[in-house]
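Fold this sequence, please.
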Amino acid sequence: MSNLLTGMSEFYNAVWVDIRQPAKYLTEAIGRYDPFRLLVIWDERLRFRQQLEMMARHTPELLDDVGLTKAQVERETRKPFWQR
């Protein structure tokens, strides 16, 4: 029960941060408290992490070009979509 509550609390805090501090380029395009914006942010994170994982798998030499280690990529791609 405690793990479930902790997970829910982390999720709630992540949602709250994304609503209160959105990506700067979305501020003008979408209203301040528009729930659609939250979905856009989460979709972008999910796509970015999928692309990063594909890059690490198919062209690992590009990781050096962007200055990331395999451990950093693995840590980033394991995050749920709602975590920054």
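The chain has one domain: 2-77. The helical segments are 2-20, 24-27, 35-58, 61-66, 70-77.
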